[in-house]
Amino acid sequence: MDSTPVVFWFRRDLRLTDHPALAAAAAAGPVVGLFINDDALRRPSGEARLAFLSATLDALNADMGGALVVRTGQPADVLRQVLGDVGGTTVYATDDYGPYGRRRDTLVGEQLAADGLTVHYLDSPYVVPPNSIVTGGGTPYKVFTPFFRAWKAHGWPAAGERVDVNWVTDVDSEGVPTAPSTAADLPAAGETAAWERAEWFLREAVADYGSARNDPGVDGTSRLSPHLKYGVIHPRQLLERLDDTEGEEIFRSELCWRDFYAEVLFQRPDSARNAFVPRMAGMEVDEGPLADERFQAWCYGQTGYPIVDAGMRQLKAEGWMHNRVRMIVGSFLVKDLHLDWTRGARWFMDQLVDGDLASNNHGWQWVAGTGTDASPYYRVFNPTSQSKKFDPTGRYLRQWIPEIAHLSDKEIHQPEACKAGAPAGYPGPIVDHAAERIESLARLERLKTANAAQP
Ligand SMILES: Cc1cc2nc3c(=O)[nH]c(=O)nc-3n(C[C@H](O)[C@H](O)[C@H](O)COP(=O)(O)OP(=O)(O)OC[C@H]3O[C@@H](n4cnc5c(N)ncnc54)[C@H](O)[C@@H]3O)c2cc1C
Fold first, then answer.
1. What is the mean pLDDT of residues 397-405?
2. Quick one: which atom of ligand 1 is closest to the CA of 321?
3. CA distances from 402 to 93, 253, 299 (A)
4. What would the DSSP string read from start to end of 172-225?
5. Nearest 5°: CA angle at 112, between 110 and 115?
6. More exposed terminus of the chain, fewer Cβ within 10 Å: N or C?
7. Is any atom of ligand 1 closer than 6 Å to the C-beta of 255?
């Protein structure tokens, strides 16, 4: 091993175990472990995610014996400075596949090369890195199920051990950014905490995951998404622990959705903002003061539809929302309020601790009927029936909406229809679902007519 230090640039891989890029750095020499506080990545994040990131960095720093170096600035400038400080010429990092990350990494590679410095990008935050799997016709997959089959057939490397690193400890650091104050109740951060949750899930919950994952009132999913977002756990570490029971196979497929959406975004970076299916781009959306008022009611859990309000209140309180409820609130925003899906997606990206451009924006496109594999636009979720079906006893509703907690299991899904009258302090429905469903379908017909008239 050379005694010249190398820099390891931490990004979405804030862990020390199963870490091929860190292992490559450690094999090359003493390592400066660097995190760059990059404004471009902080801007779309609300307080909850930034607070969770700070806590994750604190935990990583503790695991590194206090050796983490944090600096703020343009990545190429910071890397040049740190290499200059330690007399190094080489940087290692895990590869990034998102639109911003790709642009940044190409630029950093070029700028450093101009100064005779080198960056090695290895591995990825995914099980199978984007652009690795194609259909028989040589094109990228646009449908999940065949992608899942091909993904399993492709396979992945076994998870690695904790990397033994000789950290360089005497480099100037600003310290981990102070966590912004947040009212959100966040999960415990860091590798140890993430694995405690993972071990619990694999031991106690994965067997029932197939059914429990749709019930927002029970703790039936892994809740590992914030840790996966920051690479505190790599998904291949979880896959290695799975067998072939029904629950495990469904959990495997959920991890594959994460890869699938990263693949779709890699192939079509424009789909972060625009409809993946161009013919859906012209859907009429509501704008103006009434639309804004409705959007506010949606954001703050005041729509009068309990399952929607419970979800939006959970999001505010925990920076996380159950997947089934993400689908319900998304459908409500698009098909009952007729708002542009990107408005909802931006709010989610601000609020979610697991906010991830690929999973979020493609989750939204699925709900909005504009994406790959999307739920067809004409399939409109009825929030009241969804509530009765997936939270039959109202356990989830009672947890988040105290104003209606006293209602019976039957009445709680539709408080305005209570025999004793609507409960005080809880708003009546801001729109009539039956009428808005018809309006939504009418808009679809108008879009089809407009598309057919196009040359
Ligand atoms: C409108 C909408 C927005 C979403 N935004 C995000 C987001 O910003 N970040 C995010 O990680 N997930 C997002 N999802 C997907 C999903 O809701 C969350 O991954 C899941 O709820 C996280 O909880 P969990 O860790 O308990 O999931 P589990 O059910 O335990 O699943 C395990 C892991 O699989 C992955 N996964 C599960 N479902 C999906 C999915 N549908 N798409 C992609 N990956 C999935 C996640 O990494 C998750 O942590 C969104 C879904 C919708 C419908």
1. 97
2. 21
3. 47, 35, 18
4. ----SPPPPP--S-PPPPSHHHHHHHHHHIIIIIGGGHHHHTT-TTS--S---H
5. 115
6. C
7. yes
For the CA of 327, the closest atom of ligand 1 is 53
Pocket lining: 213 vs ligand 1, CB cutoff 6 Å: yes
First to last CA, the chain: 65
Q: How far is the CA of 312 from the centre of ligand 1 (A)?
A: 16
Spatial separation of the C-alpha atoms in residues 349 and 252, rounded to whole Å: 25
Check residue 429 and report its DSSP letter: P
Cα 304 to ligand 1 centroid, rounded to whole Å: 26
The CB of 261 under 6 Å from ligand 1? The reply is yes
What pLDDT, in 10s, does the model give residues 86-125? 999 999 999 999 999 999 999 999 999 999 999 999 999 9
- Show the domains of the chain with their CATH numbers: 6-123 (3.40.50.620), 126-160+191-267 (1.25.40.80), 278-449 (1.10.579.10)
| CA 2 / ligand 1 centre spacing (Å) | 42
Which of 74, 356, 349 minimizes the C-alpha distance to 230? 356
Atom of ligand 1 nearest to the CA of 224: 25
